[in-house]
Amino acid sequence: QTERTLAMIKPDAFKNMGKIINAISQSGFLISKLRVAKLSKQEAQEFYAVHRGKPFYDGLTDFMSSGRICALELVAPGAIRKWRELIGPTDSNQARAEAPGSLRAQFGTDKTYNACHGSDAPDTAAEEVAFFFGPGRYPGKCDLA
Ligand code: CMP
């Protein structure tokens, strides 16, 4: 049934935003919300709080606060899984081997610089949509410098 997910075009792929939005549209998603934003280090730490303590947490949050991102709410039947299939495996090198047409294969570099993010479940999708689009989120949060 109709579902929503939070998609993010990460700083490394921001320059390819047009191509990625085209791929999203061609795949049959409705783009219901869209916002260009810039995360502070603290906001990146909050967004990825579930990964706090992992060895890649500091590098991940440095990267995610290094430039502009595009956050999108995507709506489609099975949107969460559908978007994760379009982006491909977390590691862009693995994506090039296993899903060469995927967005991470085309626009990412490795496990950290992997072009796109997608929510992994309905509860995290709701939280992540609220992170960018909930009440009081703009202006006031993730504002452009
Ligand atoms: P994302 O879908 O945004 O969700 C968590 C992110 O952590 C993931 O994409 C990667 O960018 C990053 N990540 C996950 N596992 C690793 C890892 N082993 N090494 C470095 N970065 C990772």
Key features of this structure:
single chain, 145 residues, alpha+beta, 4-stranded antiparallel beta sheet, 7 helices, 4 strands, 40% helix, binds adenosine-3',5'-cyclic-monophosphate, Nucleoside diphosphate kinase
Give the helix level as a range of percent. Answer: 40-55%
The coarse silhouette is globular
Give me the CATH superfamily. Nucleoside diphosphate kinase-like domain
Based on secondary structure, the structural category is alpha+beta
Low-confidence stretches: none
Order of helices and strands: EHEHHEHHHEH
**Total of DSSP H or I helical runs spanning 4+ residues:** 7
Family: Belongs to the NDK family.
Protein name: Nucleoside diphosphate kinase
Subcellular location: Cell projection, Cilium; Cytoplasm, Cytoskeleton
Organism: Gonium pectorale
Structure description:
By secondary structure, the protein is an alpha+beta fold. The protein has one domain (2-133): Nucleoside diphosphate kinase-like domain (Alpha-Beta Plaits), CATH 3.30.70.141. It is built from seven helices and four strands, in the order βαβααβαααβα. It has helices spanning 17-26, 41-47, 57-64, 79-87, 92-98, 103-107, 122-133, and strands at 2-9, 30-38, 68-77, 116-118. It has a four-stranded antiparallel sheet, sandwiched between helices. It is globular, with a radius of gyration of 14 Å. Bound molecules: adenosine-3',5'-cyclic-monophosphate. The site of adenosine-3',5'-cyclic-monophosphate has 8 residues, from loops.
